[in-house]
Amino acid sequence: MSLFNSLSVSASGMTAQRQRAEVLVENIANADTTRTAGGGPYRRQDVVFEAQSVGQPFSSVFQAQLDNQPKGVAISQIVVDQSEPDRRYLPGHPDADKDGYVSFPKMNPAEDMVDLMGASRSYQANVSAISAVKDMINRSMDLFR
Fold first, then answer.
1. Which CA distances in Å does 76 have to 114, 127, 128?
2. Do 54 and 9 contact (CB within 8 A), yes or no?
């Protein structure tokens, strides 16, 4: 794999982790949302990653010559949690049913915060990889001077 392919793989990882972080932040922000436009409480969402061939923007001339295409990462889908919501007895709540129970999203904000920290660290790891590749390219160019 060339250095330029490494840049493409890390860039795809950064994009996927940014999208994952956006979904996690939406989950955290809606942890107590009892009513949505679609009716009912907010439903937690999770991202599903898949391997994806990455393009070679800097060496597209040689793409036909390569047998093994490098794999990056992309989000294949966003899965909505279909489990039953948590029910809490709050008879004065505007969204309470006839028995006084309110349906809340079934989620654990602490778990989402840990996932968000993981996404942040994965993003930073890709930034570090890009920085290392950039340094290698600069040193290679210095050798030709």
1. 22, 22, 25
2. yes
Query: pTM score, two decimals?
Result: 0.80
d(CA 112, CA 21): 10
Residue/partner pairs of 76-79 with CB below 8 Å, 24 or more apart? 76/48, 76/49, 76/50, 77/47, 77/48, 78/23, 78/45, 78/46, 78/47, 78/48, 79/45, 79/46, 79/47, 79/48
Distance (Å, rounded) from C-alpha 105 to C-alpha 38? 14
| 142 Cβ contact partners less than 8 Å away, ≥ 6 residues apart | none
Distance CA 110, CA 93 (A): 25
Q: What's the pLDDT tens digit per position in 2-54?
A: 777 888 889 999 999 999 999 999 999 999 999 999 888 999 999 999 988 76
